[in-house]
Amino acid sequence: MKLHPHRRVMTMSLLLAACCLALPLQAEERFPSKPITLVVPQAAGGANDAIARVIGQKLSQQLGQSVIIDNRPGAGGNIGTAFVGKAKADGYTLLVQADSAQVINPWLYKNTGFDPVKDFEPVAPLAHAGYALVAHPSFPANNVKELIALAKAAPGKYSIASAGNGTLNHLIGAMLEKAARIDLTHIPYKGSAAAATDVVGGQVPLSVQSLPSSISFIKSGKLKVLGVVNEKRVKALPDAPTIGETIKGFGKTPWYGMFAPAGTPKAVVERLQAEVLKALDDKDVIDKLAGVGAEPFKGSPAELGALVKSDLALWKQVVADTGAKVD
What we know:
Helix content: 40-55%
Order of helices and strands: HEHEHEHEEHEHEHEHEEHHEH
CATH architecture of the largest domain: 3-Layer(aba) Sandwich
Radius of gyration: 23 Å
CATH superfamily of the largest domain: Bordetella uptake gene, domain 1
Strand content: 15-25%
Structural class: alpha/beta
Low-confidence stretches: 20-28
Number of domains: 2
Mean pLDDT: 89
Strand order of the largest sheet: 2-1-3-10-4-11
């Protein structure tokens, strides 16, 4: 039976429309069809970089595509973060982020170049990292209680090194001073490695350090742990007490997460989150994260988004209390 010319045109139009609608769905179903880039807004060798490389290697195996680590350091993580916030929202350019750049920087910088909530689609939490208050082995205090006694007897006498003004370890140190009602002299360095090196060398007695940056010094006896910053004891240092065991209510567990540019298709985000969860259950991944003092942190995009919002409120108050500013 022949179709009327008008009906033939309508039929063709409907077929074309159906094809057009199917294209984005098919593209999402085929994801990923090319290499994925994980942008790390910090230099190679740090905690965030180490975690990104462990996760990226496993995702590459699972997805059958190359996963490229692209380090874009600068401005405390703002440069790389802003780059991803402006990238094409297709799931091929992703951000592996330390909590500090996402939830502290907006309160430190006049202009970060990104909105921590509006510019990003949360994909999945990745890991928790251990943080510890460390000291040179010769330091007279061996725990937080003894440190408090020393510091109260000589306010301002003892120095604490950080990776720089407004960095996570600076603010954790400031939180400790406030909670313990002690006065330490803050000495900012250009990076965690430089701060840790001077504590190892005895130039500065104290520092708050991430375990990925300091675990080798701790295990070799070049640094001693006075207390763990996290709410709970960490697997990498099971015998080290938390600061919260001495100062009730003290504790913060730094986290790392994966984000996509805002507007990334839901199907792509869900696929990525499922693959991250699968990777975090892998024994090899768990062991490699443990090797850098980190532990898997499993959750949903919604949970990561809620964590960003709650931590933004927390660090806004801490920054206000310390008066820290970068520019």
